[in-house]
Each structure stands twice: as C-alpha cells, then as structure tokens.
Amino acid sequence: MSLTYFDYAATTPVHPAAVAALMQALSQFGNPSSRYPIGRDAAAALKAQREVIAKAVGCSPAELFFTSGGTEGDNWAIRKGVERNRRKGKHIITTAIEHAAVLETCKDLERQGYELTVLKPDRAGRIQSQQVLDALRPDTALISMMAVNNETGVVLPVQETVRAVKAKDPNVLIHCDAVQGFLKLPYSLTSTGADFVAISGHKIGAPKGIGALYIRKGLKLAPLLTGGGQEEGLRSGTEPTAQIAAFAAAVEAMVQDKDRLQRTEAIKTYTLDKLQAALPKLQILSRGDAPHITAVSLPGYKSEVVVRVLGDQGICISSGSACHKGKPSHVFAAMGLPKPLMDGALRLSFSPSTSEEEADRLVAALKAASEQLFPTLS
User: Fold this and answer.
1) Catalytic residues
2) pLDDT in tens, 69-79
3) Sequence-separated (6 or more) residues with CB below 8 Å from residue 111
C-alpha cells in the first residue's frame, strides 16, 4: 500500500541529507567535552552546526542551546522564566490554543501558586494583541504565545504583542513556542522580539529528539537540567552529536529550498479548492495563515472514524494535534465551534513536495468516505 501523507504538522520524514549527516556523525563518536583529538573534532563540528541553526533562527550561536525538542524548550523557558522574574510577581498570561507543552506547564505552575490568565480566541481561532495588553498586570512575570497554531495554521501576533507589552512593561518576559513556525514563516523568529523561542527538529526533516531554545542575549536563565555543565552550563548532558548534525543538515536543506513556502501554499490552496468542489458540505474552519496547515470539517461525521477509514487506505490525516491521542481538540473547543463542526474537524498539513496527485487521492477518498459512512445525529 502506498503512503499518502497529509500530517506534516505532526512530524516529517527525515530528509536524506539529515540521514547522511546522522550516519557520518555516528561513526565519529568523540565526546565534544573530551580534550583529545576526536573530542576536539566533535566539538568543532558541533560549533559549526550550531552556527548553521542559529543563522536560520536569526540569532547568534551564543544565544542558541540544544534541547531534546519543543516540549523541553517550552518547559525550560516557562518554568525558569517565572523563577527568574519571581520578584516581579506570580502572574502568567497565555492563550487557550497553545500546545499542551505550554498549557500543561502553566497549569502545573498554577497548582504551585501562580495565577494564570488564559486568553480565548475568536471563532476563527485568532488572538489579538489587545487581549494580552488588557490582561497585563503589574505582577505579570511571563507571557507565552505561540508563533503558529498547530491545528489551525493561524499565525499569532507575537511581534505586535511583544512591542506593545515591552513598551508598557519592559520587565515582562515573553516566550514563544515556534515549533510550527521555524522555517515555515517568511521572517526570522527572533525578529518577533521574544525573549525565549523554542524550536524542534522533527518538524523540518530532522530526527525526533532534538530541538533548541533561543535565549536572548543578556538574560540569565537557570538550567532546567543540571549536571556536567554542557551548553555553557545551561543544559547539562552530553550533546547528542549525531542528532545535532542531522538537525543542521535538515536546516541547510530547507534554507536552500528558496520557494518552499510558495509551493506549500500553492498545494494547500489546490487541495482546498478541490475539496470544496467535491464535498459541498465540507466547511473550512481555518485556511491557515502559515502555508502548511489548514483545518476543515465534515459536519455530521466523526473525525476519528474518517481518519481511521482513510488510514486503512494509506492516507494519513489527523483530527488535530498528534499529542491529543484521540481526545477532543482543546483548540477547536476554545474557538467555540458547534458540536457537529468540532466532531467532524480534520487537520490537513502539507510539505513543499506534496503533489497534486496526492491531493486528488485525498479528495477522492474523503468524498467516498462521506458517501459510505453514516452521519451522526449530533
């Protein structure tokens, strides 16, 4: 059975260049902290790879610290950010559409005595910067706002929000989960002005288990993990040199593909046009500002059933974030969607290599499913 993949927001295939870099690095097994030649060689390679990724993020290598992925980066920035700002207060602002790595971390801090304000989106899944300003208090220690929503593709106004907040209170720390924004937006992540930016490798063709956190120069953030003092003492643990090598190679491959965003946007538009023509009852929940994500709904049908039926045909789509593991989407719920729309919600996500033939196969399969499955009465 051939695979037709429309879940690139969940994870991406490892790029061939990343595989080659990974295999080469596995054969060069030196520990970068060791002082003999193979250790120094590993340290030199690590330095070069950090420079590649930092350039893509838009920061200096000294501001980039490797992590195990987006979840660790989010936890590190939020937990140690509020700890750093504890004298300012114990108030946190975030949005109801954040990834679970942010929301669950904030809820855990709330259980520890922090006050949490969670901003709700409008029906289109959008958050306005004015909402953040209205929620700002003298004791606000940290704000967390994602770059791109992973279920709707909506781009949040991080830059506008940072400017407005810093003008009012420059001591508030701002964290941005940019896992879905890294190399998917036509500008550098640090141009948003956020103090902390978390990214992940497996969303851009690197293996799972590698990511990075940007920490703005001049900020001293305590380590989340303590130990041997790697990463300038801020993230202990022997660096995963093979994964970092693959991460850098994937970044280079993406950066060199100059029209990747335009091709991704084009295939998304093609797919949505075909879906609307073939399924008149289908509703677009969000076209997605980012080029690679859109959300639609087949009202009256259970999305988990549709996902399973298409999966049996080798077509991979999702009913929301992979981290939900079959649970209802908190994003669609926060948008206040009627139950039939929420029950039938589907996320489609694309890559620059997604073809019209694959899109046609998806459209045909969804049309057949809508004709063969029995709609619910909800």
Assistant:
1) 323
2) 999 999 999 99
3) none
